[in-house]
Specification:
Helix content is 26%, strand content 23%. It contains 14 helices and 22 strands. Bound molecules: flavin-adenine dinucleotide.
């Protein structure tokens, strides 16, 4: 569990000859999952306590798509938390666990699933750190039942902008806690997280899936499934127009009982790696449509019931490492929004039509039922339908995001910051009535706005 590599201290100031030798090498860059680069470098250390002193941003496994984990300025001190990956305490009787912020979900699953415990909320990839899960207040297929990850956090140990180290939680420095959960790393560096793991009856998942012919049927099926299943989500084909628009596969699941589960634990399948960046043209409207049709009809029976490994159920995309190279050198973004339940099914249908008309649709389009809003001041979900769609970066992408945002503002919804790179500040303000409270809390704990990121420059006007 402890890092195998030796700690990497802050780099020594480069000597003149070393500088001359590296003068021709390109400046180091960092990027998020969408692979749009920004100048900057990161410091790795096993000790977050020392590394975060004077740092302006922390990051984890860089699975946020946009600019949330990117520095505002190339010279900013950015700490990568992934070497601080120890489990500090675990109480088997209660499931309460305390970890360093750089622990990854893949490690937690490896260690605790065989002991009969699983994280209360998991996003759609296991390659995230617990610090990143708090900062984005991630949600999973069980949001309608369990809320976001932050709802299961008992306390955080943090380094603040003035370099002090404090503890916060739902009942201690609660304003700091509420602004940190979903606050995209802008309130402080998360050093340690205490939260509660859930007991699971087996290491297998009972899954039922259904092929659904169009978006209206899909929404009706999701609404029917939500009270019956602790976990639901769907893939929708948002490239097909006309009567079949929004057809897709609905998946519902629960942990299999010990009796239903096979006698041996699930085995990890072969890990495929996309070895290089594909050219931009590989993913085009024709290949995307072919993929969608094949994926839809791969689900041969209309209804299927099976016991499956958690890997394909929770983390289907993790089967191919570096799949983000598939979008080519242009990079990509994800537009994830929530359409409030009050706006109803017609608003979701209209959104899908707009998305297809604007040319923003791609093979990866996921729909989820969200439950009530949590306490995180900038936490994403609210009661309604979340729709997430990947989009290659193109000259049209800013216009597409603008138009979708205008629709979402009118519908009373919002977007997910951890996926975002293109939302304009005025659009974010218009969709986020909680923003003033967040900014006031940030002002209290960091009046000089020392902690910052490329996202906070773009959306909150921090100095670059
Ligand atoms: C394939 C895929 C599927 C996904 N599915 C989902 C999903 O279903 N639900 C969902 O909610 N999200 C989902 N995500 C998004 C992902 O869960 C979040 O972006 C998560 O924050 C990534 O964690 P990370 O460790 O990679 O953080 P990074 O991307 O490195 O950082 C994300 C944010 O957290 C901050 N941060 C990270 N570590 C710290 C720390 N120690 N202290 C303070 N701030 C910190 C960063 O500053 C940044 O603002 C998905 C992403 C991918 C690539």
């Amino acid at each position: 569990m402890t890092a195998h590599a030796t700690p990497v201290a802050e780099p020594a100031p480069p000597r003149a000859e070393a500088l001359a030798a590296t003068a021709a090498t390109p400046a180091p860059t960092l990027s998020g999952w969408g692979r749009l680069p920004a100048p900057g470098r990161e410091i790795f250390s096993e000790s977050l306590e020392s590394a975060t002193r004077g740092a302006v941003l922390s990051r984890g496994l860089a699975r946020s798509y946009g600019d949330a984990s990117l520095p505002a300025h190339a010279a900013d001190k950015v700490v990568n938390a992934t070497m601080a990956n120890r489990v500090l305490a675990f109480d088997e009787a209660t499931g309460v666990i305390r970890v360093e912020a750089g622990v990854s979900l893949v490690e937690l699953n490896r260690l605790f699933m065989p002991r009969g415990f699983f994280t209360p909320v998991t996003p759609g990839t296991k390659f995230v750190t617990v610090g990143g899960m708090v900062a984005s207040d991630v949600h999973g297929k069980n949001h309608h039942v369990e809320g976001c990850f932050g709802a299961h956090v008992r306390s955080l140990r943090m380094r603040l902008a003035d370099d002090s180290v404090v503890t916060c939680g739902p009942d201690e420095n609660a304003d700091l806690f509420d602004a940190t959960v979903g606050g995209m790393g802008l309130l402080g560096h998360i050093l340690e997280v205490e939260f509660t793991l859930h007991r699971i009856p087996s290491q297998w998942v009972w899954m039922e899936s259904e092929r659904v012919p169009d978006i209206d049927a899909f929404l009706a099926a999701l609404a029917k499934s939500a009270p019956q299943w602790p976990m639901t989500m769907g893939w929708i084909d948002c490239l097909t127009r006309g009567r079949s628009m929004g057809r897709g596969i609905l998946m519902a699941g629960r942990w299999a009982t010990a009796e239903e589960a096979p006698p041996t634990p699930p085995r990890l399948g072969p890990q495929i790696t996309l070895p290089f960046e594909l050219p931009n043209w590989v993913l085009n409207p024709v290949t995307a449509s072919l993929f969608n049709t094949a994926y839809y009809w791969r689900h041969l029976r209309q209804h299927a019931k099976q016991v499956v490994s958690p890997e394909p159920f929770f983390y289907p995309l993790d089967a191919v490492l570096h799949w983000n190279r598939g979008y080519g050198p242009r990079g990509f973004t994800q537009y994830q929004c929530v359409v409030p339940r009050a706006a109803g099914a017609p608003a979701v249908r209209e959104f899908m039509e707009l998305l297809t008309r604007l040319g923003g649709a791609s093979p990866l389009c996921v729909i989820k039922d969200c439950g009530d809003e949590g306490r995180g001041m900038l936490s994403f979900p609210l009661s309604g339908m979340s729709i997430a769609v990947d989009m290659a970066v193109s000259p049209d992408v800013q216009n597409i995001v603008d138009k979708l945002n205008e629709f979402i503002i009118a519908a009373g919804g919002r977007i997910y910051l951890t996926k975002d790179r293109f939302t304009r500040p005025e659009h974010f303000r218009a969709m986020e009535p909680r923003l003033d409270r967040f900014l006031a809390t940030r002002e209290k704990y960091d009046p000089q706005r020392r902690l910052r990121s490329a996202l906070s420059v773009r959306l909150f006007g921090d100095r670059a």
